[in-house]
Amino acid sequence: MFGSLKYRFNQLTEDHGSWWTNKYHHLKMKVFRAYSGFFANIQCTVKGIKLGHGTEFYGQPFFHRYPHSNIMFGDNCTIRSDQTSNQIGVNHKCILSTHKKGAILRIGNNCGLSGVSIGAAMEISIGNNVLFGANVIVTDWDWHEDRIDSQPAPVIIHDNVWIGVNSTVLKGVTIGENSIIGANSLVVKDIPANVIAGGNPCKVLRTK
Description:
By secondary structure, the chain is an alpha/beta fold. It has a single domain (about 1-205), classed as Hexapeptide repeat proteins (UDP N-Acetylglucosamine Acyltransferase, domain 1). It has one helix spanning about 1-45; strands at about 55-60, 60-65, 70-75, 80, 95-100, 105, 110-115, 115-120, 125, 130, 135-140, 155, 160-165, 170, 175, 180, 185, 195-200, 205. The chain is globular, with a radius of gyration of 20 Å. The mean pLDDT is about 90.
């Protein structure tokens, strides 16, 4: 009987400690989110980044907007640039950039980004409810302007797509709505809607 009472007491004290730890963590993240949002909004205003309503920041992203280009967010996006803001681990802050006149980087409503690198020289269009795992790269060009044959090609990611951690999406790719891209994938060709795909190179594994 004494053993069972002792076990129950230990359970109660552990649960109580956990409750306080969680409360402290939530309070800390709430303050951190407010602090991050204040300075991120200043950065966006100065650099001409268009933010929708309800955008949340954890840590400071890096924005680079080429003159006469556009970076735009829809409503209720979450941008995680701090290592502690994603439990799977963020290797670096979010980097969102345009690199040529007329380039467009468009992100829809209710999207989640964690330590992503997204660079547009022509057009990257991301739909609504798209989730990016930690450290995803999306680009519409080769990053070598000295090559004559290096031309950008638009990237289109449709609604409700989930792209797994450490994946890379290269130029000219379209990913159909409701599809899932597995972790560590290299996406070099179009992925249709309503499938699960993965690998290097990324290919369809099965339909949903």
